[in-house]
Amino acid sequence: MRLLLLAPRRAQxxxxxxxxxxxxxxxxxxxxxxxxxxxxxxxxLTISDLISSESVDASLGIHLYRAGRLxxxxxxxxxxxxxxxxxNEDAKxxxxxxxxxxxxxxxxxxxxxxxxxxxxxxxxxxxxxxxxYVQSQGIVTAPSTSFNQKAFLQRAEWHRKEPGIxxxxxxxxxxxxxxxEVKEKVKTADGVHLLQEIPQxxxxxxxxxxxxxxxxxxSEGMSAAILEAMDLNVPVLARNIPGNAAIITHKATGxxxxxxxxxxxxxxxxxxxxxxxxxxxxxxxxxxxxxxSPECERKVYxxxxxxxx
Length: 309
Hints:
By secondary structure, the protein is an alpha/beta fold. Helices cover 43% and strands 15% of the residues. It contains 14 helices and 11 strands. The chain starts with a strand and ends in a 5-residue tail after the last helix.
């Protein structure tokens, strides 16, 4: 089949490896995949033109609202993968919730990364419950063996700072207004460095060389960055929100904080207690091995896509 993979840019950049991994799964089964950004299309009509010109047989949309609204009324079968903000945020707005419900009515299937996200979606749209499958993200990390962390940080002008604790914020600018707000705050924050996006293998190598990974999101589906850190044997400090709590057991596979003060306290605990650091790393790695197998993920998506024939 010729499949259209439609996803927001956020899901395709930085540590957003989900789309690329799914593309690999489907192409391994002999399908042809065309990956497109939702922001490139204004309406279902523009998607229909693409479907016609590219002879697309079916589609898989990532994000129930952003991709789903474009596939609504399509003349090809499609499936949907929940993104996180669609269920956690967009569903709270009546005009978007109505559209998302209509999309689910048309979709052959939907995929949720967690049971909790499935239950939330089913509470909003009860008729869709039986077509929602739960499949956690499969995680694969491949840190570059040639990446020189010291040289990279020197090029980023980190060598001008005094040795100590530093926070690196790295990745693409997805939302311009928010990016500018972050840049302004970083200017007055000692020890905080804002760096541009780098290749995934280099990012994994950089993460592997760090003491910990921080997730400060106020809304998450299932953070690939958290899971990748776990796989790379790096402890995670994450904001205590449903998406993060679904994959982190506090003080077992990671640390969850709710306030800035709690973040500081937990950070100091992690720095001052090597045994806690070691236990979190070991348990997190075991969790990843057990629950985030890329082989299992591959089988699920290869079987689900058959529903689009």
